[in-house]
Specification:
This protein has helices at residues 4-47, 76-82, 119-126, 159-164, 171-176; strands at residues 52-53, 63-70, 86-87, 90-97, 108-113, 132-136, 144-149, 152-158, 168-169, 179-181. The chain is α/β, with parallel strands linked by helices and 190 residues long. The termini are far apart.
Length: 190
């Protein structure tokens, strides 16, 4: 009988250790999945550019600017993703801004929201500006809104908002979206 207690204790410790190992592995796998998701979204940000036409007269400076406005879920992942990349002849650069302004020097703006300016407020400020706004599963979606579908990073597109900003989204990019809010037909009443 005196041997049963150590055996029970040993079994309990082994079970605890196994449970801890499984939980730690699950947490590690979850972090790896989150890290992959972040990397995919970071790559998408600048890869949207060739499928978007900005209005005539839109600034075409030396660099193509991807802004992260408010909270930054990307950190150095975005910087590494755009390193050495270009859009046409323009090199891609990343700028981090606390708040959006209508005259922000952004070609693409990821809106992370913050205490200073929520996503909805940032969208209001940028409405009508020639900026491709990108959000992440937001209740107030931008022109592009990231979504997870079957464990993969996908996106929805609001083509009417794109039109309001003077942007034209290519049919190729529209066909890849999980959903598209279409433009109003020309001449239709609002």
């Amino acid at each position: 009988m005196s041997h049963a207690a150590p055996q029970t204790t040993l079994t309990g410790i082994l079970r605890f250790a196994l449970a801890l190992l499984v939980l730690t592995g699950a947490a590690g796998a979850a972090r790896a999945q989150e890290s992959l998701e972040t990397a995919v979204k970071a790559a998408y940000l600048y890869k949207f550019a060739p499928f978007v036409e900005w209005p005539a007269g839109h600034p075409t400076g030396a660099s193509f600017t991807v802004c992260v406005v408010g909270s930054d879920p990307f950190g150095s992942v975005l910087d590494r993703a755009v390193a050495g990349q270009s859009v046409g002849e323009r090199s891609v650069v990343v700028r981090r801004l606390a708040i959006a302004a209508h005259d922000s020097p952004c070609d693409i703006a990821f809106l992370g929201g913050s205490r200073a300016q929520g996503v909805k407020e940032a969208l209001g400020v940028l409405h009508g500006a020639p900026v491709l706004t990108v959000t992440d599963g937001s209740a107030a979606p931008g022109v592009v809104d990231f979504a997870l579908a079957q464990g993969r990073v996908r996106f929805r597109i609001d083509d009417q908002t794109a039109a309001d900003c003077g942007l034209t989204i290519s049919s190729k990019l529209l066909s890849l979206a999980v959903s598209v809010r279409p433009r109003k037909a020309s001449g239709s009443n609002p």
